[in-house]
Amino acid sequence: MSDADLTRDELEDVRDVFDLFDFWDGRDGLIDASKVGDLLRCVQLNPTNDLVKSWGGTEKTGEKQYSYEEFLAIYKQTKNVKEWGTFRDFEEAFKSFDREGQGYISAAEMRHLLTAMGERLEDEDVDEIIKHTDITIDLEGNVKYNDFINKVIAGPPMK
């Protein structure tokens, strides 16, 4: 994917986010590799932590730095990933906790799934997801997981 494959808006967004992180990091034209995942998420991509690491992101600050051009290459690579998980992948994960096979999981089990398995989320992140998906918890404390999955895949509502 060349620069010509990206829209002007995409290039401007990537540059703006890079410059903002560079500003916070000392204005030297470089961003720390530990911030690569954060930058990608700021430009509407959603890579896994493993994917970020495989493309040069680090956990520790100060190990490596990237110029704008180097980060742009990582952005293009991430943008080319077409699938971050399908509805079926997520549905299978939730189904294993659906004891009655009715399409519901307890809200507590859902929170446990999100905070203790796979790429673990923090409680605050789960609270934010629940807030933005506006899920309904029934009188028995259960959530219809297909609705939840669809809302998460759709992403946060645009304002």
Q: How large a portion of the residues is in β-strands, by DSSP E?
A: 5-15%
What would CATH call the homologous superfamily of the largest domain? Answer: EF-hand
Per CATH, what is the topology of the largest domain? Recoverin, domain 1
The count of DSSP E runs of length 2 or more, i.e. the number of strands, is 4
Label the CATH architecture of the largest domain: Orthogonal Bundle
The DSSP helix count reads 8
Description of the structure:
The protein has 159 residues and is mainly α. It has two domains: 77 residues, EF-hand (Recoverin, domain 1, Orthogonal Bundle), CATH 1.10.238.10; 67 residues, EF-hand (Recoverin, domain 1). The protein is 52% helix and 6% strand. It is built from eight helices and four strands. The strands form two sheets. The protein has a two-stranded antiparallel sheet. Strands 3-4 form a two-stranded antiparallel sheet. The protein is elongated. The two termini are 30 Å apart. Pfam families: EF-hand_7 (PF13499). This is EF-hand domain-containing protein. InterPro entries: CALM/Myosin/TropC-like, EF-hand-dom_pair, EF_hand_dom. It comes from Elysia chlorotica (Eastern emerald elysia). GO terms for molecular function: calcium ion binding.
Produce a short descriptive summary.
By secondary structure, the protein is mainly alpha-helical. It contains eight helices and four strands; from the N terminus they run αβααβααβααβα. The two termini are 30 Å apart.
Give the arrangement of secondary structure elements.
Elements: H1 8-24, E1 31-32, H2 36-42, H3 49-54, E2 65-66, H4 68-79, H5 87-95, E3 104-106, H6 107-116, H7 123-133, E4 142-144, H8 145-154
Antiparallel strand pairs: 1-2, 3-4
Helix pairs in contact: 1-4, 5-8
